[in-house]
Amino acid sequence: MRQLADARVPFHPATILGAVVWVAIAAGFCISWVQLSLVEILYLLAPLVAVPLAISLIPPLDESGRSSGRKSGLSWIILIAAALATLSLFQPAGPNAAATASAWFLVCGWLAVEGLRRFLQYKAQSFSQFCFAAGEAYLIVGGTWLVMSRLGRQPLGFQEPIVLLTAVHFHFAGFLSAVLAGLTYEHLRETRWSKLLRLALPGAVIGPGLLGLAFLTGPKLKLAAVMLIVAGQFGLAAGTIRVAAGIEQLVGRTMLFFSSSCVLAGMLLAATWAMGEYPLHPFVDLVRMEKYHGVLNAVGFGVCGLLGWTNAGRGRATATAAQPSREE
Questions:
Q1: How does residue 214 score in pLDDT terms, banded at 50, 70 and 90?
Q2: For residue 94, with 0-12 CB atoms within 10 Å meaning exposed, 13-18 middle and 19 or more buried, which class applies?
Q3: 28 belongs to a structural domain
Q4: Which domain holds residue 133?
Q5: Is residue 73 included in any domain, yes or no?
Q6: Angle at the Cα of 189 (from 188 to 190), degrees rounded to 5?
Q7: Measured by CB atoms within 10 angstroms of the end CB, which terminus of the chain is less buried, N or C?
Protein backbone atom coordinates (compact mmCIF):
# COMPACT_ATOMS: atom_id res chain seq x y z
CA MET A 1 0.00 0.00 0.00
CA ARG A 2 1.13 3.55 -0.69
CA GLN A 3 2.41 5.99 1.91
CA LEU A 4 0.40 8.99 0.73
CA ALA A 5 -1.16 9.64 4.12
CA ASP A 6 1.66 8.39 6.29
CA ALA A 7 2.84 11.67 7.80
CA ARG A 8 -0.16 13.76 8.67
CA VAL A 9 0.38 16.84 10.74
CA PRO A 10 -1.80 17.58 13.79
CA PHE A 11 -4.86 19.73 13.22
CA HIS A 12 -3.87 23.32 12.52
CA PRO A 13 -5.24 25.91 15.01
CA ALA A 14 -7.11 27.62 12.16
CA THR A 15 -8.85 24.35 11.30
CA ILE A 16 -9.79 23.79 14.94
CA LEU A 17 -11.12 27.33 15.23
CA GLY A 18 -13.19 26.89 12.07
CA ALA A 19 -14.67 23.68 13.47
CA VAL A 20 -15.54 25.41 16.76
CA VAL A 21 -17.30 28.21 14.87
CA TRP A 22 -19.31 25.74 12.81
CA VAL A 23 -20.34 23.67 15.86
CA ALA A 24 -21.45 26.86 17.63
CA ILE A 25 -23.52 27.96 14.61
CA ALA A 26 -25.01 24.47 14.20
CA ALA A 27 -25.91 24.35 17.91
CA GLY A 28 -27.54 27.77 17.63
CA PHE A 29 -29.51 26.55 14.63
CA CYS A 30 -30.76 23.51 16.56
CA ILE A 31 -32.15 25.69 19.38
CA SER A 32 -33.46 28.36 16.96
CA TRP A 33 -30.97 31.03 18.02
CA VAL A 34 -29.36 31.16 14.58
CA GLN A 35 -31.73 32.12 11.78
CA LEU A 36 -30.20 30.13 8.93
CA SER A 37 -31.61 27.30 6.85
CA LEU A 38 -30.34 23.72 6.97
CA VAL A 39 -28.84 24.19 3.50
CA GLU A 40 -26.85 27.18 4.76
CA ILE A 41 -25.66 25.26 7.82
CA LEU A 42 -24.50 22.38 5.64
CA TYR A 43 -22.80 24.75 3.22
CA LEU A 44 -20.80 26.41 6.00
CA LEU A 45 -19.37 23.03 6.92
CA ALA A 46 -17.37 23.17 3.67
CA PRO A 47 -15.34 26.39 4.09
CA LEU A 48 -15.07 26.17 7.88
CA VAL A 49 -14.17 22.48 8.25
CA ALA A 50 -14.19 20.21 5.19
CA VAL A 51 -12.04 22.16 2.73
CA PRO A 52 -9.26 22.93 5.25
CA LEU A 53 -9.11 19.26 6.29
CA ALA A 54 -9.08 18.08 2.68
CA ILE A 55 -6.36 20.53 1.64
CA SER A 56 -4.12 19.18 4.42
CA LEU A 57 -4.52 15.68 2.96
CA ILE A 58 -3.81 16.54 -0.69
CA PRO A 59 -0.10 16.14 -1.52
CA PRO A 60 1.56 19.43 -2.56
CA LEU A 61 2.78 19.92 -6.09
CA ASP A 62 6.32 20.90 -5.15
CA GLU A 63 8.67 21.14 -2.19
CA SER A 64 7.65 24.74 -1.44
CA GLY A 65 4.16 23.42 -0.66
CA ARG A 66 5.62 21.28 2.12
CA SER A 67 6.92 24.31 4.03
CA SER A 68 5.26 24.55 7.44
CA GLY A 69 5.17 28.35 7.18
CA ARG A 70 3.41 28.23 3.81
CA LYS A 71 0.91 25.66 5.06
CA SER A 72 0.20 27.73 8.15
CA GLY A 73 -0.29 30.91 6.14
CA LEU A 74 -2.66 29.12 3.75
CA SER A 75 -4.67 27.75 6.68
CA TRP A 76 -5.22 31.22 8.11
CA ILE A 77 -6.11 32.66 4.70
CA ILE A 78 -8.70 29.90 4.23
CA LEU A 79 -10.13 30.60 7.70
CA ILE A 80 -10.46 34.35 7.02
CA ALA A 81 -12.19 33.69 3.69
CA ALA A 82 -14.44 31.10 5.35
CA ALA A 83 -15.35 33.61 8.08
CA LEU A 84 -16.33 36.15 5.42
CA ALA A 85 -18.40 33.51 3.61
CA THR A 86 -20.13 32.81 6.93
CA LEU A 87 -20.80 36.50 7.47
CA SER A 88 -22.31 36.77 3.99
CA LEU A 89 -25.05 34.29 4.93
CA PHE A 90 -26.14 36.55 7.78
CA GLN A 91 -26.50 39.51 5.40
CA PRO A 92 -29.48 40.16 3.12
CA ALA A 93 -28.88 38.94 -0.41
CA GLY A 94 -27.43 41.70 -2.53
CA PRO A 95 -24.15 43.33 -3.61
CA ASN A 96 -22.78 43.65 -0.05
CA ALA A 97 -23.34 39.97 0.75
CA ALA A 98 -21.87 38.94 -2.62
CA ALA A 99 -18.80 41.13 -2.03
CA THR A 100 -18.30 39.52 1.37
CA ALA A 101 -18.64 36.02 -0.11
CA SER A 102 -16.20 36.84 -2.91
CA ALA A 103 -13.27 36.24 -0.54
CA TRP A 104 -14.17 32.54 -0.54
CA PHE A 105 -14.63 32.66 -4.30
CA LEU A 106 -11.03 33.89 -4.62
CA VAL A 107 -9.77 31.02 -2.46
CA CYS A 108 -11.74 28.59 -4.63
CA GLY A 109 -10.24 30.18 -7.73
CA TRP A 110 -6.70 29.83 -6.38
CA LEU A 111 -7.30 26.16 -5.53
CA ALA A 112 -8.78 25.57 -9.00
CA VAL A 113 -5.59 26.99 -10.53
CA GLU A 114 -3.64 24.54 -8.35
CA GLY A 115 -5.86 21.80 -9.78
CA LEU A 116 -5.06 22.91 -13.33
CA ARG A 117 -1.33 22.93 -12.54
CA ARG A 118 -1.67 19.45 -11.04
CA PHE A 119 -3.46 18.17 -14.13
CA LEU A 120 -0.87 19.67 -16.50
CA GLN A 121 1.97 18.26 -14.42
CA TYR A 122 0.68 14.68 -14.16
CA LYS A 123 -1.77 14.43 -17.10
CA ALA A 124 -2.78 10.75 -17.35
CA GLN A 125 0.23 9.44 -15.44
CA SER A 126 -1.49 9.26 -12.04
CA PHE A 127 -5.16 8.49 -11.43
CA SER A 128 -5.01 9.71 -7.84
CA GLN A 129 -3.55 13.06 -8.95
CA PHE A 130 -6.31 13.32 -11.54
CA CYS A 131 -8.84 12.89 -8.71
CA PHE A 132 -7.20 15.65 -6.67
CA ALA A 133 -7.06 17.96 -9.69
CA ALA A 134 -10.73 17.37 -10.52
CA GLY A 135 -11.70 18.05 -6.91
CA GLU A 136 -9.81 21.32 -6.81
CA ALA A 137 -11.40 22.36 -10.11
CA TYR A 138 -14.90 21.74 -8.75
CA LEU A 139 -14.36 24.36 -6.06
CA ILE A 140 -14.46 27.28 -8.48
CA VAL A 141 -17.93 26.16 -9.61
CA GLY A 142 -19.08 25.92 -6.00
CA GLY A 143 -17.61 29.33 -5.18
CA THR A 144 -19.32 30.91 -8.19
CA TRP A 145 -22.74 29.61 -7.19
CA LEU A 146 -22.20 30.85 -3.63
CA VAL A 147 -21.63 34.38 -4.95
CA MET A 148 -24.70 34.08 -7.20
CA SER A 149 -26.73 32.97 -4.19
CA ARG A 150 -25.55 35.87 -2.03
CA LEU A 151 -26.11 38.30 -4.87
CA GLY A 152 -29.74 37.15 -5.07
CA ARG A 153 -29.46 36.18 -8.73
CA GLN A 154 -31.27 33.32 -10.45
CA PRO A 155 -28.65 31.95 -12.86
CA LEU A 156 -30.12 29.93 -15.73
CA GLY A 157 -33.54 30.48 -14.15
CA PHE A 158 -32.80 28.50 -10.98
CA GLN A 159 -34.15 29.87 -7.70
CA GLU A 160 -33.23 29.29 -4.08
CA PRO A 161 -32.55 26.91 -2.50
CA ILE A 162 -31.33 25.31 -5.76
CA VAL A 163 -28.67 28.02 -6.23
CA LEU A 164 -27.07 27.44 -2.83
CA LEU A 165 -27.65 23.67 -3.10
CA THR A 166 -25.54 23.76 -6.26
CA ALA A 167 -22.72 25.35 -4.26
CA VAL A 168 -23.15 22.59 -1.64
CA HIS A 169 -23.13 19.93 -4.38
CA PHE A 170 -19.84 21.04 -5.92
CA HIS A 171 -18.12 21.41 -2.54
CA PHE A 172 -19.15 18.00 -1.18
CA ALA A 173 -20.22 15.67 -4.01
CA GLY A 174 -17.62 17.30 -6.27
CA PHE A 175 -14.55 18.37 -4.32
CA LEU A 176 -14.70 16.07 -1.28
CA SER A 177 -15.69 12.93 -3.19
CA ALA A 178 -12.81 13.43 -5.61
CA VAL A 179 -10.31 13.98 -2.79
CA LEU A 180 -11.48 10.90 -0.89
CA ALA A 181 -11.39 8.89 -4.12
CA GLY A 182 -7.80 9.98 -4.73
CA LEU A 183 -6.73 9.09 -1.20
CA THR A 184 -8.41 5.68 -1.39
CA TYR A 185 -6.97 4.80 -4.79
CA GLU A 186 -3.45 5.89 -3.87
CA HIS A 187 -3.58 3.81 -0.68
CA LEU A 188 -4.67 0.70 -2.61
CA ARG A 189 -2.79 1.40 -5.84
CA GLU A 190 -0.44 -1.55 -5.52
CA THR A 191 -3.11 -4.05 -4.47
CA ARG A 192 -5.58 -6.16 -6.43
CA TRP A 193 -8.19 -3.50 -5.66
CA SER A 194 -6.63 -1.03 -8.08
CA LYS A 195 -8.33 -2.36 -11.23
CA LEU A 196 -11.76 -2.39 -9.59
CA LEU A 197 -11.29 1.15 -8.29
CA ARG A 198 -10.13 2.40 -11.68
CA LEU A 199 -13.47 1.19 -13.06
CA ALA A 200 -15.69 2.51 -10.24
CA LEU A 201 -14.11 5.72 -9.01
CA PRO A 202 -14.47 7.78 -12.22
CA GLY A 203 -18.21 7.75 -11.52
CA ALA A 204 -17.60 9.41 -8.16
CA VAL A 205 -15.18 11.93 -9.70
CA ILE A 206 -16.82 12.82 -13.02
CA GLY A 207 -20.44 12.13 -12.06
CA PRO A 208 -21.01 15.32 -10.01
CA GLY A 209 -20.03 17.47 -12.98
CA LEU A 210 -22.31 15.51 -15.30
CA LEU A 211 -25.17 15.87 -12.82
CA GLY A 212 -24.70 19.63 -12.82
CA LEU A 213 -24.97 19.66 -16.62
CA ALA A 214 -27.94 17.29 -16.48
CA PHE A 215 -30.04 19.92 -14.71
CA LEU A 216 -29.87 21.90 -17.95
CA THR A 217 -31.03 19.04 -20.17
CA GLY A 218 -33.69 16.90 -18.55
CA PRO A 219 -34.56 14.02 -16.24
CA LYS A 220 -33.12 11.23 -18.42
CA LEU A 221 -29.54 12.51 -18.24
CA LYS A 222 -30.12 13.44 -14.61
CA LEU A 223 -31.06 9.86 -13.79
CA ALA A 224 -28.04 8.53 -15.71
CA ALA A 225 -25.68 10.95 -13.92
CA VAL A 226 -27.04 10.05 -10.49
CA MET A 227 -26.71 6.33 -11.21
CA LEU A 228 -23.12 6.92 -12.32
CA ILE A 229 -22.43 8.72 -9.05
CA VAL A 230 -24.12 5.96 -7.05
CA ALA A 231 -21.99 3.29 -8.73
CA GLY A 232 -18.85 5.33 -8.13
CA GLN A 233 -19.68 6.03 -4.51
CA PHE A 234 -20.45 2.37 -3.86
CA GLY A 235 -17.00 1.56 -5.24
CA LEU A 236 -15.48 4.29 -3.08
CA ALA A 237 -17.29 2.94 -0.01
CA ALA A 238 -15.99 -0.57 -0.71
CA GLY A 239 -12.44 0.75 -1.12
CA THR A 240 -12.71 2.80 2.06
CA ILE A 241 -13.87 -0.25 4.01
CA ARG A 242 -10.84 -2.13 2.68
CA VAL A 243 -8.55 0.69 3.79
CA ALA A 244 -10.21 0.88 7.22
CA ALA A 245 -9.82 -2.86 7.75
CA GLY A 246 -6.06 -2.49 7.52
CA ILE A 247 -5.74 0.50 9.85
CA GLU A 248 -4.69 -0.06 13.46
CA GLN A 249 -5.53 3.43 14.73
CA LEU A 250 -8.97 3.08 16.38
CA VAL A 251 -10.38 6.55 15.67
CA GLY A 252 -9.25 6.54 12.07
CA ARG A 253 -10.60 3.04 11.44
CA THR A 254 -13.94 3.81 13.10
CA MET A 255 -14.38 7.08 11.21
CA LEU A 256 -13.67 5.45 7.86
CA PHE A 257 -16.12 2.63 8.54
CA PHE A 258 -18.76 5.17 9.59
CA SER A 259 -18.08 7.31 6.51
CA SER A 260 -18.61 4.29 4.28
CA SER A 261 -21.93 3.40 5.89
CA CYS A 262 -23.14 6.98 5.54
CA VAL A 263 -22.33 7.20 1.84
CA LEU A 264 -24.11 3.90 1.18
CA ALA A 265 -27.27 5.17 2.90
CA GLY A 266 -27.00 8.57 1.25
CA MET A 267 -26.59 7.09 -2.22
CA LEU A 268 -29.65 4.88 -1.79
CA LEU A 269 -31.63 8.05 -1.08
CA ALA A 270 -30.08 9.78 -4.09
CA ALA A 271 -30.99 6.87 -6.38
CA THR A 272 -34.55 6.86 -5.03
CA TRP A 273 -34.85 10.62 -5.64
CA ALA A 274 -33.47 10.37 -9.18
CA MET A 275 -35.80 7.52 -10.14
CA GLY A 276 -38.72 9.62 -8.91
CA GLU A 277 -37.52 12.62 -10.91
CA TYR A 278 -37.56 10.71 -14.19
CA PRO A 279 -41.33 10.01 -14.25
CA LEU A 280 -41.80 13.33 -12.40
CA HIS A 281 -43.41 11.59 -9.43
CA PRO A 282 -40.81 12.17 -6.70
CA PHE A 283 -40.51 9.40 -4.13
CA VAL A 284 -38.35 11.62 -1.90
CA ASP A 285 -39.01 15.38 -1.86
CA LEU A 286 -36.30 18.05 -1.80
CA VAL A 287 -36.83 18.88 1.89
CA ARG A 288 -36.17 15.28 2.91
CA MET A 289 -33.19 15.11 0.58
CA GLU A 290 -31.71 18.15 2.33
CA LYS A 291 -32.40 16.73 5.77
CA TYR A 292 -31.24 13.15 5.28
CA HIS A 293 -29.08 12.89 2.15
CA GLY A 294 -27.45 16.26 2.83
CA VAL A 295 -26.47 15.44 6.42
CA LEU A 296 -25.35 11.90 5.55
CA ASN A 297 -23.23 13.12 2.64
CA ALA A 298 -21.72 16.27 4.17
CA VAL A 299 -21.23 15.27 7.81
CA GLY A 300 -21.17 11.47 7.77
CA PHE A 301 -19.41 10.72 4.51
CA GLY A 302 -17.39 13.88 3.94
CA VAL A 303 -16.18 15.21 7.28
CA CYS A 304 -16.02 11.84 9.07
CA GLY A 305 -14.11 10.43 6.11
CA LEU A 306 -11.60 13.28 6.27
CA LEU A 307 -11.23 12.85 10.03
CA GLY A 308 -10.70 9.14 9.47
CA TRP A 309 -7.90 9.71 6.97
CA THR A 310 -6.28 12.39 9.14
CA ASN A 311 -6.32 10.29 12.32
CA ALA A 312 -5.19 7.16 10.48
CA GLY A 313 -2.25 9.07 9.02
CA ARG A 314 -1.27 10.51 12.39
CA GLY A 315 -1.40 7.03 13.90
CA ARG A 316 0.97 5.66 11.25
CA ALA A 317 3.29 8.65 11.64
CA THR A 318 3.44 8.10 15.42
CA ALA A 319 4.17 4.41 15.00
CA THR A 320 6.92 5.17 12.50
CA ALA A 321 8.49 7.77 14.78
CA ALA A 322 8.50 5.29 17.67
CA GLN A 323 10.58 2.76 15.74
CA PRO A 324 14.37 2.90 16.24
CA SER A 325 16.31 3.96 13.20
CA ARG A 326 18.66 1.54 11.43
CA GLU A 327 21.61 3.70 12.31
CA GLU A 328 20.99 2.98 15.98
A1: confident
A2: exposed
A3: no
A4: 43-58+89-316
A5: no
A6: 95
A7: C
